[in-house]
Design a protein that fits this description.
single chain; about 220 residues; alpha+beta; five-stranded antiparallel beta sheet; 4 helices; 5 strands
């Protein structure tokens, strides 16, 4: 028996139950894949937002179903119908939980890759500042002596690294870097790099985690 036939058999004559079961089966791979897309190109972050929006809606339906279906089942004495609907609702919740867990793993891998890919830029800024006695006014000044080209962040909603130098730099650093990265759809984690590593002078440390010298201000 094919997977579709099994789903049709599970839903019985009720097409809504079959459709809900299909969405439950697809929940975790789609949610996880959306996070993978968001971590592999800034233009894909809207996929994460769309996936989270859809699944918030589906989870609300599933929670309502878990509450309402038992009442309808008891009134109608339709035990088989009720068991299948409750099973589909629970499967949906399980799928979303697994999808979120998968997405978190993709996000962690994306963060680690971003820090690794940003290392040449950080090293070039530190070398320029050490040799010239001041920070470059723009990242373009690093090219071509310190970098072959100005890199672009592999994650986040920005097409370029945020860069501040001189009086605009934060916490009395000569320069600072920052990138905004979407997480859980509408929230934004803020990546900051301070050469002095004195993040506590600008941000609440209790809301931060640190990775490879970067301070990540968590929004969620």
């Amino acid at each position: 028996m094919s997977i579709w036939n099994k789903i049709k058999s599970w839903g019985g004559p009720n097409p809504d139950c079959r459709m809900f079961t299909v969405m439950a089966v697809l929940a975790w791979p789609l949610l996880g894949f959306a996070k993978w897309m968001a971590m592999n190109g800034s233009r894909w972050w809207l996929a994460d937002l769309l996936a989270v929006t859809i699944y918030i809606f589906l989870v609300m339906i599933a929670l309502v179903g878990i509450v309402v279906v038992p009442v309808l089942t008891w009134r109608r004495k339709a035990w088989r119908w009720g068991i299948k609907w409750i099973g589909s609702c629970l499967l949906m919740l399980f799928g979303v939980m697994v999808g979120i867990s998968t997405g978190v793993k993709f996000q962690k891998a994306g963060y680690e890759r971003f820090v690794k890919e940003s290392a040449p830029l950080v090293a070039a800024l530190e070398k320029f500042t050490s040799e010239e006695g001041h920070a470059p006014a723009t990242l373009a000044e690093l090219v071509p002596q310190y970098l072959p080209a100005v890199p672009k962040p592999s994650i986040g909603i920005q097409s370029d690294y945020g860069y501040r130098a001189g009086d605009q730099a934060l916490a009395e650093n000569l320069w600072t870097l920052h990138v905004s990265v979407p997480t859980l759809g509408i929230d934004m984690d803020q990546f900051h790099y301070f050469p002095k590593q004195n993040y506590g002078e600008n941000f609440p440390v209790r809301r931060m985690k640190f990775l490879g010298g970067w301070g990540i201000l968590l929004d969620s």
